[in-house]
Amino acid sequence: MERMQGEGEVDHLERPSPLTDKERVMIQDSWAKVYQNCDDVGVAILVRLFVNFPTSKQYFSQFKHIEDPEELEQSSQLRNHARRVMNAINTLVESLDNTEKVASVLKLVGKAHALRHKVEPVYFKILSGVILEVLGEEFPEVVTPEVAAAWTKVLATVYCSITAIYEELGWPNVPTSTS
Fold first, then answer.
1. CB 3.0–4.6 Å: which of 7, 15, 37, 146 could bond 160 by disulfide?
2. pLDDT at res. 7
3. Boundaries of each Globin domain copy (predicted)?
4. Which domains does the chain have, with CATH numbers?
5. Is the predicted pLDDT of residue 12 greater than 90, yes or no?
6. Distance between CA atoms of 23 and 149, rounded to whole angstroms?
């Protein structure tokens, strides 16, 4: 069953503590193995998101009416978006020791999703859970409980950063035009 926050509401989470060097290495090492299967993992993540949280498809005119998971998997638009998501995560993971680069990437993602795509910020939280679930299922030998805890921490940091960007932009009262 899909559970959603109130519309337009921004969830306030306490920002996790910074990653330790050990956590950063665990994330980067596990991601290296995941990213070898970038396209398939990205598609699995988005299909799981859209099947378990069908309202998340509302932001994707190209495939929002596709109900069949196998048909979703074959959608070239979904595959392209999955690649963009995986590449953004890859940039973040590669830059975990560069807070300015991470902040820059998250600002771009946050602004685009708030202003251009009008995505409710709660979907970043939902996506984080789906990412953890899929990585744990697809890579159980890599995503051990300790590694999953590090991923939980980094994804919570991403979510907190994105919601802070939304707040800076005045979400939910963002302008309907970006011009």
1. 15
2. 40
3. 18-167
4. 21-169 (1.10.490.10)
5. no
6. 9
- pLDDT of residue 10 exceeding 50: no
SS (H, E, C) the chain: CCCCCCCCCCCCCCCCCCCCHHHHHHHHHHHHHHHCCHHHHHHHHHHHHHHHCHHHHHHCCCCCCCCCHHHHHHCHHHHHHHHHHHHHHHHHHHCCCCHHHHHHHHHHHHHHHHHHCCCCCHHHHHHHHHHHHHHHHHCCCCCCHHHHHHHHHHHHHHHHHHHHHHHHCCCCCCCCCCC
Mean pLDDT along residues 160-173: 92
Please state, rounded to an integer, the average pLDDT across all residues of the chain: 90
State the first-to-last Cα distance of the chain, in angstroms, to the nearest integer. 38
From the list 161, 63, 77, 57, the residue with the least C-alpha distance to 111 is 161
Q: Rounded distance, CA 130 to CA 119, Å?
A: 17
Reading the block at residue 73, the tokens are: 């998997």
